[in-house]
What we know:
heme biosynthesis, 307 residues, 83% helix, Protohaem_IX_farnesylTrfase, cell membrane
Amino acid sequence: MDQAASASQHGDQLTVVPSRWRDLLALTKPGIIGGNLIATLGGYFLAAHGTFDWVTFSAVMLGIALVIASGCACNNVIDRDIDALMARTRHRPLAKGRISVTQALGISALLGVAGVVCLALGTNGLTVALAVIGWGVYVGVYSLYMKRHSEYGTLVGSLSGAMPPVVGYCAVTGQFDSGAFMLLVIFCLWQMPHSYAIAIFRYADYRRASIPVLPVVHGIKRAKHHILGYIVAFIPASLALVLASKAGTGYLCVTLAMGGYWLYLALSGFRLGDDVRWAKKVFGVSILTITAMSLVMVLEAMVPMWV
C-alpha cells in the first residue's frame, strides 16, 4: 500500500511540473510572440539589404521576444478579471488562479529586464527605446486604461502592435527614417481590421466583459465599414515601400494579391448573412497577408546573399 501510494504521489508530481511549465508559457502568449517575430524578421531584412550580422540579428530577435513576453505577462495580470468572463480566455492561468499576481509580475519583470539588456548589448539605443515605448503603450496605456474605457483602445493598441517590425528595422539602420515610418503606418493600419474582425466573431465575449470595442459600441455594420476603410488605406500604404525602392517585385505581387483578396472579403461582408463566419475569414486572411508580406521581405533581402 505504501509503495502504491508513493508511486501515485510521484506520478502526481510529474503531472504537476509539466502543467506548471505550460501555465508559465501560456502567461507569455507564445502565439503572439511568434507572429511578432515574423514581423520583426521582415523589418530586419528590409533594412539589411543583403547584409547580415549574427550578433545584431540574434540580439534583436531574442530581445524583442522577451520584451513582448513581459508585456503579455503584465497584460494577463491586468486583464485577469475580464479574462474570467470571456469564453476564449477564461482558462488562462491567472483567471483560474493557477499562478499568483506576484509570480506573474516577477516573471514579467525578469523577462522585460532580460529583453532590454539583450537589445542594449546587441543593437543600439534607438532600438531599445522603441521596444520600451512599445511595451509602455501596450501595458501602461492600452491594457491599464484604454481597453476598458474607450473605443479607441484598438487604435492605441495598434501602435504597440506595429512596433516589432520597426524595432527589427532600426536594429540595422540605427535611425528612424522613412522606411521605419512606412513600416509603422503599414502595421498600424493592418492591426485595425484584424482586431475589429476578432471583436465581431468574439462579440458576445467583449459585450459580456463590457469592453467598448467598436462593434459593441456602434454595431457590426459600422465596424464593417471601418474594416473596409482601413484595408483600402492599408494597400497603398504597403505599396509605398515599392515606390520608395525599399521592396521589390516579389513584395509588390504578394501585396497586390493578398491585399486584393482581403479587400474582396471586406466587400463581401455587406452581402453575407453570417457575420461570425465572415469575420473569421477576414481575420484568417489578415494573418496570411501580413505573414506573406513579412516573409517576402526576408526572401528578397536574402537573394543577394545567395548570388
